[in-house]
Amino acid sequence: MEVNNIFTWYLDQHTEIEPETDPELIKQRVWQRRVGVKDSGRLTEAQIAAQEDRLGVRLPMPWRNVYKHFNGGWVGTLYWGDMSNPHSSDVVPIPQATHQYLALEDVAPLRERLPAEWEDLDQGNLDCSNLDPRLIAIACAGSEAILLDYREGASPRVCKAFFSKYEDDPLAAWETDRSTVWWPNMAVFFRGLYLQNRAA
């Protein structure tokens, strides 16, 4: 089993590549070289601060700095647990429908993002107006969301929320649903993130 960190695949996909010009390398069939990361792959401090103003919250560290390297996107086989002792039962800390975190410009209160996801599931309209606007979705797809929960203050808890389409009211008990997972803060959540290649 091979493990790695959250940025490896993403940065590989956002790498700027140019033709190789070294004749010795060309002889060895090396045709391209990496020269940097595309601007779209990371945000500046000013861009992050502008999005925080829009959201009305300060993003927690170290997730705030993630956007300087990783502005949302697909991260593949991401798990949460002990990287040195990975298990197949480790939590998948991202919506399994897409395996993507939202670009920061798309991060929004859950009550703004969830209704559209619910419609995509052909579940009709879901009235989310009673959801607290301090529940900020950094990922949302299908019936799952990764949330920053600012309801108790400026240092948010992190949650992988599950909304059952089989419940009459999917919003009634999502916080205690057995598929919902809570972390006390971003430091604990971030420390446990790792990539796991189970085919290796």
TrEMBL record:
Transmembrane segments: none annotated. Pfam families: SMI1_KNR4. Signal peptide: none annotated. Residues 43-190 form the Knr4/Smi1-like domain. InterPro entries: Knr4/Smi1-like_dom, Knr4/Smi1-like_sf. This is Knr4/Smi1-like domain-containing protein.
